[in-house]
Structures are given as C-alpha cells and as structure tokens.
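stage 2 :: seqdesign
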C-alpha cells in the first residue's frame, strides 16, 4: 500500500475514532461533515450515510447553518453517485437558505461550488461556470484566497471543456495574479489547471512544472484521489516529450494507486496509456499485455468508447509488428462497431490505419473506400471551420450596418470576404479527387513494377509528379487564404517542443534524403499559435533544404531577444542564395524559387509566412547573397512569466 494511501486511511480512521468517542453534539456533527466530505470521492455510499446522519442531527438541533451545510454535502454525495435530481434538490435548497441569511457569503460560495460541480459532472459546462463565477465573487468578498483560486481553476476547466481557450486562460491568469504561495487545495486546483492549459499549447516543460506544484500540495494533504489523476497527466506529458521511461514511472504510480482505490474505469485507462507508451518504445509484447488488460476491464463494464480505443491500440501494435493482418482487421472492425456512429478522433485514426493496412495488402477497392470515409470525416472539421468564418462574416455585416459605414466600402470589403471563403471551399473540394488519383497511381506503379513495363512507369511518374504538384498548390492556397481570415489567439509556445516533436518529424524524409544538418540551442517560449508557428518553420526549413547548393545543407536556427519584448528568430542556410533584386519580392504571392535552381516551389509558402507573422504581431525579412546562402528573420512576442 502506498504511503499516500496510508495517509488518507489514517485521516479517515482518526475521524471515525473521534466520532465514536464524541459526546458533544456540535463536535460530532463536525466529524460527520468531515467524513462525508472526505469519503465522497471514494466510498460514496458510506459518505452518503454520514451525510444523512449529519442532516438528522442538524434538524434535531434546529441549527439552520448546519442544516444548510448538511444539504450542501448531500448535494456533493449525490453528485458523486450521479443521482443529479437529488443533488440538484439539496443544492438548490442550501443555496436558497444561505442567500436568505446575512453574512453567509462563505457558506453560500461553498454551496455554489457544489452546484457547479454537479453541472460539470452533467457536462453542462455553461451552467457550471455560472455557479463557479458566483462562488468566486463570494470568496472574493470574504477574502479567502485559497477558495478564490480554486474557483479560478474550475472556471478555467469549464471554458477549456467548452473549447473557449481564451476564457480558460483569462481565469488561470486571474488566479496567478492572486497567487500568494499558499498550500491550500485551491492553489493545487489552479496549478493543475495551468498544467492542462500548457499541455494544450504543447509547452510540456511548463505543464510538468505546474503539475508537480499541484502534486506537492495534494500529497501533503493526503489527497491521493487527485494525486493519482495528476500522476497520469504527468505520465502523458512525459510521453509527449518522448521521455518514455519517465512516462512509465508516473503511469505505473497512477495505476498502483487506482488499484488501491479499486477504481476499475481508471485502471483500464492507465493500462491503455501504459500500453501506448510501450508501443512507442517498440516493446510490443508489453504493449499488447497492458492494452489487453485494459480492454478486458472495459468490456466487463460495457465501456464502448474505451473498448473501441483499446481495439485500435491493439491493431496499431500488430501493424507496427507487421504481422497477423487478419487480427488487425478484426480489431479495427470491432473498434468501428463499438463507436456506433460517433464521429470523433478514434474513428478518424481507425480509418487512417485501415488505409495503411489495405495499401500494404494492395487491396485497391478497400483502400479507396476507407480513404473516402477518412476524407469525409476530415471534411466535417473543415466545414465547421468554414462555418465559423461565415458566422464571423455575418457578424461583421451586422456591425457594419449598425455603425453606418460607407455602403460601397462595406460591399467591397464583404465581397472580398466571400471570395476568400469561396477559395477555401473550392480548394478543399479539389483536394479529395487529387488524393484519389495519387493513391491509385501509387498502387498502379507497384503493379507495373512487377510487370517491368518501363514506358508505362515513366508515364505514371509524370502523372504522379503533376498530381503531387497540384495537390501541394491547392493545399498551400487553402493555407494562404485562411491565413487572411482566421482569427489567431496568442498563447505561450515552447519552440523547442515544436522543433523536436513536430517540425523535424514532418520534414524527416527531406532531411534524411538530403543529409541536411539542422542545429539549434535552447529556444525560448514565445506568444504564438501552434498551427501558425509550425507552418512558419516548416515552410522556411523546407525551402532551405530544397534550394540547396552542392554542399551538404547546414541550417542554423538561432534567436535574439530585443528591448521591445520581442524575440527575433533567424534561420540561416548555406544554399544557393537569392539575387539582390529578387529579395524585395520574395514574399509576394506566386513568387517562385531562384531561376538557377531546378527545383520549383508553389510560390505561396513564403507569402503565407508573411501573412501569419503579421497576424502574430511581428514582421519577417530576409538577407541573402547569391551562392552564399540565405537567412530568414521573423519576430514574435516574448512570453512574459
């Protein structure tokens, strides 16, 4: 048994022993409340018994305040049991009572926290946020910093769940401004929320820093239930930084503690997470062992979505082992059946693995079928983004009418918006048939190779190259168009993580094919947008490799901090360089690569970079000399701690 679990059990046993020896009624009532509160996360049925006993005792005493607190704790217990009708009944009664009494802001705030928690469990996050905000105002009035910070943390989680990252960040920053270095549960809740937000931004080092701060407090207070979740979060963060041994260390700690709690849903989750890490490490037998354990528990509890994820995990392990294709098909079929029409990331990953599997098996029809399904599902995401653009477009029209802008100027401006949205739609629609042509051409080439049809292969090579060029052109046209109209929110971005995990991985094939050497020291955290900064680095690094000289490509990434709180990042190569007269046009749309180069680009990449940097509040420029290399510079806002 873990020392943390022992600390928790000791707290519970001490309260139970105190309760048995209590002769003073109010002290006994206090113990009943404390026991019900501490057990509400673990032994929920027993907690409910203590809460009802507390209510009976409060009513016998005719003590209004203690009756209200008993109702609050009953709301908490019934929420844990997912009996939301009873939770709502007792929570609303307590809120009405405390609102009717003077000088009860603190008790009212505590009760509003429980009502917020109930709505959060029901996934009614807007209602939860409303209750949490009311609680925050009450704790602010009475000057309870710990409870105020707890409200900041849970408010941040509500808006995070609602997809409103800006509001989530607003409340987390509000909490940090009031952070007095205390060691309360509220401080831990805020720090955990900061960890969640930094994971969302791929700033894993910062996430781990805040997770550890939360864990330190929860461990001190014997709150093993929340500590267990934090260990899981830390394990997943270490997996994202490819520190697999550290990831396994924390995931196994979390698994052990969930086993002590007999929390089978999370035991299954942890086995699946551990299996995923072993799969990344290439230790496939261990991966299968843990994912199968998780699958068994999920099937026993009829957790369809969880079981679907486990089947997908097993299929991915077998695919990486390159064996037993029949079993892979069975697992993927089971995963899709259990999803039961849900259009989510698991289904998308299933389709993607199906495409890879059927291409490997050279099954043209099935590969095409799943690629079509995959593109349709991806379309849903794109359509949603376009709908958001259209909604903002309509709002701008209404605002323009209200403000009585010049009619002709308004029409021209809004027609330009319509054309941009049309271009994005048209470009997206063109990509699907191009993807199909590309896939069929790939499969046919494999067939012709077997028959040694040299001339046919040459024709197909021409088609393949033309399709690839057109596909790239359309893809970059979409990115350029959306760069004009998308709203970009600035968040802290760890450049090191993006370079290591995303940018260099995406360019791995080009880097290896050209034996390119890319070097950089510890990079800063900047205020940017994930997709924008990835495009920036990928476009510039790709050009540095593409427009190489006869020498091995050497690319150096560096940065300099300026006095105006900006970071200037430089990317220097030893390529063929750019003529002086061409440098002022290098960021123009459809301005292609140097004429002396046999390689031609789309002429859109650097124009997109310029748009993105300007959206991020910076600027971009270039210095180059023909046959001596090129250096691109772009400035981004520095992250202020």
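stage 2 :: out
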């Amino acid at each position: 048994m873990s020392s943390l679990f022992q600390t928790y059990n000791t707290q519970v046993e001490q309260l139970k022993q105190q309760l048995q020896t209590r002769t003073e009624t109010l002290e006994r009532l206090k113990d009943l409340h404390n026991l019900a509160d501490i057990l509400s996360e673990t032994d929920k049925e027993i907690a409910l018994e203590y809460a009802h006993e507390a209510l009976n005792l409060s009513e016998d005493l005719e003590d209004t305040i203690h009756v209200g607190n008993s109702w609050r704790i009953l709301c908490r217990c019934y929420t844990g049991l997912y009996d939301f009708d009873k939770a709502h009944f007792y929570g609303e009664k307590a809120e009405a009572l405390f609102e009717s009494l003077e000088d009860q802001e603190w008790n009212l705030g505590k009760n509003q926290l429980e009502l917020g928690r109930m709505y959060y469990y029901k996934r009614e996050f807007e209602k939860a946020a409303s209750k949490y905000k009311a609680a925050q105002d009450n704790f602010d009035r009475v000057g309870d910093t710990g409870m105020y910070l707890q409200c900041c943390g849970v408010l941040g989680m509500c808006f995070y769940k609602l997809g409103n990252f800006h509001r989530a960040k607003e409340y987390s920053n509000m909490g940090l401004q009031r952070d007095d270095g205390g060691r309360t549960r509220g401080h831990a809740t805020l720090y955990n929320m900061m960890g969640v937000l930094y994971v969302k931004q791929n700033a894993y080092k910062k996430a781990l820093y805040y997770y550890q701060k939360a864990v330190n407090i929860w461990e001190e207070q014997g709150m093993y239930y929340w500590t267990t979740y934090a260990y899981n979060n830390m394990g997943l963060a270490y997996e994202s930084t490819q520190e697999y041994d550290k990831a396994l260390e924390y995931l196994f700690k979390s698994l052990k503690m969930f086993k002590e709690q007999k929390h089978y849903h999370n035991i299954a989750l942890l086995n699946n997470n551990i299996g995923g890490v072993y799969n990344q490490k290439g230790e496939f037998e261990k991966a299968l062992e843990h994912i199968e354990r998780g699958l068994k528990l999920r099937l026993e509890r009829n957790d369809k979505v969880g079981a679907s994820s486990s089947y997908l995990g097993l299929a991915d392990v077998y695919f990486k082992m390159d064996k037993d294709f029949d079993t892979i098909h069975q697992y993927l079929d089971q995963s899709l059946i259990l999803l039961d029409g849900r259009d989510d990331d698991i289904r998308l990953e299933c389709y993607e693995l199906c495409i890879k599997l059927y291409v490997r098996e050279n099954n043209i029809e099935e590969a095409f079928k799943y690629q079509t399904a995959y593109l349709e599902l991806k379309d849903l995401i794109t359509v949603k983004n376009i709908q958001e653009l259209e909604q903002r477009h309509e709002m701008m029209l209404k605002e323009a009418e209200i403000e009585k802008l010049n009619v002709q100027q308004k029409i021209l401006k809004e027609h330009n918006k319509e054309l941009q949205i049309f271009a994005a739609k048209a470009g997206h629609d063109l990509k699907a048939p191009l993807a199909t042509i590309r896939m069929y051409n790939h499969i046919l080439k494999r067939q012709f190779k077997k028959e040694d049809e040299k001339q046919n292969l040459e024709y197909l090579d021409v088609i393949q190259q033309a399709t690839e060029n057109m596909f790239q052109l359309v893809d970059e046209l979409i990115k350029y168009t959306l760069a004009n109209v998308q709203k970009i929110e600035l968040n802290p971005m760890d450049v090191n993580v993006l370079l290591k995990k995303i940018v260099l991985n995406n360019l791995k094939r080009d880097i290896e094919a050209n034996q390119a050497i890319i070097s950089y020291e510890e990079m800063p955290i900047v205020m940017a947008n994930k997709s924008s900064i990835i495009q920036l680095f990928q476009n510039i690094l790709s050009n540095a490799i593409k427009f190489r000289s006869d020498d091995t490509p050497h690319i150096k990434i560096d940065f300099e901090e300026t006095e105006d709180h900006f970071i200037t990042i430089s990317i220097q190569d030893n390529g063929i360089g750019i003529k002086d007269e061409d440098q002022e046009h290098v960021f123009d749309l459809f301005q292609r690569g140097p004429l002396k180069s046999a390689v031609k680009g789309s002429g859109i990449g650097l124009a997109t970079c310029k748009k993105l940097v300007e959206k991020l509040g910076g600027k971009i420029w270039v210095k180059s000399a023909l046959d001596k290399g090129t250096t691109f510079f772009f400035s981004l806002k520095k992250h202020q701690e």
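stage 3 :: structure notes
- Confidence is low (pLDDT under 50) at residues 384-408, 594-600.
- The first helix runs from residue 3 to 21.
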